[in-house]
Specification:
2 strands, single chain, binds zinc ion, mainly alpha
């Protein structure tokens, strides 16, 4: 149900999932899991992270949220540390160099993510969490 927030200016209410742009979402069903903001790209950014890397600043209607370290154990860790990016469908799954198809693209993104992680944490911490270093 959409609420017209402009019509209710001044009325203090909890922001809905969709209108709470400035705050990380906390889902009540998983109270102990943190959903951090991406440290790589604002969620509302309509660019593809990898297109930008390649100098293409196209705006996309449809983007997929990709967890840089995916798979059973790592997805939640990517979530927790904000290692997520928005990707166009081509860079995510369908293109020749899609991150889920091309190991090189995957590693390139993982290195960038680790670099960003290491602005806050140490390499040792990265290794402890993700099992290896990509840098
Ligand atoms: Zn792209
Ligand atoms: Zn993905």
């Amino acid at each position: 149900m959409e609420k017209n927030s402009y019509a209710n200016r001044g009325a203090k209410r909890k922001s809905s999932y969709k209108t709470g742009l400035a705050f990380p979402k906390i889902r009540p069903k998983k109270p102990r899991k943190r959903h951090a903001k991406s440290i790589l790209q604002p969620k509302e950014d309509r660019h593809c992270f990898l297109c930008l890397q390649e100098g293409n600043d196209q705006i996309y209607e449809v983007l997929h949220e990709h967890h840089v370290f995916y798979g059973t154990a790592n997805r939640q860790k990517s979530e927790e540390y904000g290692l997520k990016v928005n990707l166009c469908l081509s860079h995510h799954e369908t293109g020749e160099h899609a991150v889920h198809k091309d190991r090189k693209t995957d590693l390139r993104l993982k290195r960038l993510a680790q670099y960003a992680f290491e602005q806050t944490y140490t390499r040792e911490e990265f290794r402890n969490i993700f099992g290896r270093s990509y840098l």
